[in-house]
């Protein structure tokens, strides 16, 4: 009977050791401040005056890794972040809130692997000129590398879902909103 107790104890210890070695996926939080500005040459050419796009946000990135350390999911949030369209030529500007996105890497993020990227909520808005794009926009992409934070860089390949309201005439509306 005493040997049975020892065997049960050894078996329980072995099961606990196996359970400990199969750790659950872990989450990692990264905050990335963005204060970026560039001339949108396509819009500048379409409008006939300089158009810049500024992004100001503190992106809060949550990376979820599998047991092998590969990123399997990413959630990006930018509470309070803004995307600003402006023209230094006319002095006019407008902005809208930076929206969240989710990124799924089936099998884990590695160069050449697939990514499914979903943007949800309000995406574009030209106040007084065109209603917001709102809904769900999902893209298939491919991982092309990793940035300095270890976050996957993804090239978009194709739209795989587009649900909700998509505004027509966005470029003319941007030009009208920024015109002198």
What can you see in these coordinates?
By secondary structure, the chain is of the alpha+beta class. It has one domain. The protein is 20% helix and 53% strand. It has 3 helices and 9 strands, in the order αβαββββββββα. The chain has helices spanning 2-21, 41-47, 170-178, and strands at residues 26-39, 52-65, 71-77, 82-87, 92-97, 101-104, 114-126, 130-146, 152-165. Strands 1, 2, 3, 4, 5, 6, 7, 8 and 9 form a 9-stranded antiparallel β-sheet that branches. Strand 7 and strand 8 form a beta hairpin. 17% of the residues are buried.
Beta-strand content: over 45%
Q: Could you give a short account of the major beta sheet?
A: 9 strands, antiparallel
Output the radius of gyration. Answer: 24 Å
Which residues form runs of ≥5 with pLDDT under 50?
A: 1-21
Element-by-element helix/strand order: HEHEEEEEEEEH
Key phrases:
single chain, 180 residues, alpha+beta
Secondary structure layout:
Blueprint: H1 2-21, E1 26-39, H2 41-47, E2 52-65, E3 71-77, E4 82-87, E5 92-97, E6 101-104, E7 114-126, E8 130-146, E9 152-165, H3 170-178
Antiparallel strand pairs: 1-2, 2-3, 2-4, 3-6, 4-5, 6-7, 7-8, 8-9
In short:
This protein has 180 residues and is α+β, with helices and mostly antiparallel strands.
């Amino acid at each position: 009977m005493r040997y049975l107790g020892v065997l049960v104890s050894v078996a329980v210890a072995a099961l606990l050791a196996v359970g400990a070695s199969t750790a659950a996926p872990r989450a990692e939080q990264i905050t990335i401040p963005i204060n970026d500005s560039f001339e949108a040459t396509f819009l500048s050419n379409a409008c006939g005056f300089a158009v810049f796009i500024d992004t100001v946000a503190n992106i809060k990135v949550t990376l979820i890794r599998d047991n092998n350390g590969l990123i399997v999911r990413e959630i990006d949030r930018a509470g309070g972040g803004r995307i600003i369209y402006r023209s230094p030529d006319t002095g006019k500007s407008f902005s809208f809130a930076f929206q969240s996105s989710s990124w799924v890497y089936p099998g884990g993020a590695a160069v050449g692997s697939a990514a499914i990227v979903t943007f949800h909520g309000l995406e574009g808005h030209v106040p007084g000129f065109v209603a917001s794009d709102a809904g769900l926009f999902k893209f298939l992409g491919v991982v092309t590398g990793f940035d300095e934070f270890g976050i996957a860089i993804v090239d978009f390949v194709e739209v795989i879902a587009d649900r909700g309201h998509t505004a027509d005439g966005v470029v003319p509306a941007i030009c009208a909103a920024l015109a002198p």
